[in-house]
Description:
The N and C termini lie far apart (100 Å). Helix content is 20%, strand content 21%. It has a domain at 54-128: Ubiquitin-like (UB roll). By secondary structure, it is of the alpha+beta class.
Amino acid sequence: MDFDDDYEEEFDEEFDEDFDESLDEDIDEPSSKSPTKDLRTKTPEHKISSEGKKISVFFLSTIGPGEKKQKLLVNTRNLIIDIKQTVANLFALDPSDFHISSGGVTMDENNQLKDYDVNDGDDILLIPASVAGRILRKI
């Protein structure tokens, strides 16, 4: 016998010793108990209607040097404040530094995109936040 045969024979013996247990299961007859009616699920009873749809829009920023444009797929049910945060990340801006506007209307952060007349392929502008009207006084 050579080394491989000795090793294989030794391995087979160890394998047989390790798995010398019986795998036969005692299967009982099905229980006559009926399932309880207190089944809880994480799925809501009524399906929540998602009125929103996904549209592609272009965000155009003139804040900082040069004009930048980014395409983004958004759900029309998203809140403006959430969209604004995502756009701020895309353009490396602070959300408080700009407002977003479409069709000459500045969007309120607490509204959903569907509250505005924004369609697939439309441009949404980033407008710098104004500090006009603030009076700075030297102390």
